[in-house]
Design a protein that fits this description.
D-Maltodextrin-Binding Protein, domain 2, seven-stranded mixed β-sheet, two-stranded antiparallel sheet, 3 domains, 11 strands, alpha/beta
């Protein structure tokens, strides 16, 4: 078993096809087939079940999958540590909530890119559940997520405190009016979003029954639909302050236990802290952490 075998296994498992894996790995299908066969012989187990349309992982293959990313990351970390002379360089893969990116990160990312141009900074957005999973799977060096996060392989640092507000159309002047809205809808990010969970808890606590949530992939889409009166959402006040000031939406205070949310920076406990990641974390610690007061 070597790293190339494991990377080949991961590509086949993810794509469900020897041929597609060969294309992605820039090789021929016979090489992929030979590596998978050799790996299965080494383990004494079948990792895939073959069928007319491709392959699916066996239970043994499914149990093996979580280790592939970790092993590959350990090898990459070892190489990075050997080459790391203290000057930030290389690639830094980060993730963030879209709201955190919009509200907090632009100045930080711009400053980091200016100060350390040798670092290739790659930032992707997602919800908390997805970002935690990608950090655990070593697809990201770290990520900004909504707390709390409980995971034995995750180390977390509080970086911001946000004030959450319920956001509705300008026609809604108070939370009491929510009871008068027929077929009340919630506008949320995809499942796994912490804001979504808070919103559902708040509405349930007020005895409000809502229709099935409408899921969106972007912050702009959610705000546009809220402004049009499609439904309500829950977001950090700073993200919607400008739209509220322009009269496009209305913001409403939440109970204290639901209004405050911690934004955490998470990374794997056993992950190598490169000079690039260390420099980024040091810079992030200097960003003001104070919460924004709700209106």
């Amino acid at each position: 078993m070597d790293l190339t075998d494991l990377k080949t296994f991961e590509a086949v498992a993810r794509l469900g096809s020897m041929n597609k894996a060969a294309v992605e790995l820039n090789t021929v299908q016979s090489n992929v087939t030979a590596r998978i066969r050799a790996l299965e012989e080494d383990l004494g187990l079948a990792l895939f079940e073959r069928h007319a349309r491709g392959v699916v992982t066996t239970p043994a293959g499914q149990r093996m999958m979580p280790f592939v990313g970790r092993i590959a990351k350990l090898v990459e970390d070892a190489r990075a540590a050997a080459r790391d002379d203290g000057a930030p360089s290389g690639t830094l893969m980060l993730g963030s909530l879209e709201t955190t990116m919009a509200l907090r990160l632009a100045p930080l990312l711009a400053e980091f890119a200016t100060q350390w141009p040798q670092v290739r900074l790659v930032v992707s957005s997602g919800n908390t559940a997805r970002l935690v999973r990608e950090v655990v799977e070593c697809k990201l060096d770290g990520a900004f997520v909504a707390g709390p996060v409980e995971h034995p392989e995750i180390e977390q640092t509080r970086v911001f405190t946000e004030a959450l507000v319920l956001v509705a159309s300008p026609a809604v002047s108070s939370l009491k009016e929510l009871t008068k809205i027929p077929d009340l809808k919630t506008l949320v990010f995809q499942f796994g979003c912490s804001y979504r969970q808070r919103l559902e808890a708040f509405l349930h606590g007020r005895g409000l029954v809502v229709a099935r949530p409408l899921e969106f992939g972007s912050l702009d889409a959610i705000l546009s639909c809220v402004a049009a009166g499609v439904g309500v959402t829950l977001l950090p006040q700073g993200v919607v302050a400008q739209a509220a000031a322009a009269g496009k939406v209305s913001m409403h205070r939440l109970p204290a236990e639901l209004a405050r949310m911690q934004t955490l920076f998470i990374r794997r406990r056993d992950g190598y802290v490169s000079s690039a990641l260390g420099a980024f974390l040091e810079m992030a610690q200097r960003v003001p952490r104070g919460k924004v007061k709700a209106a």
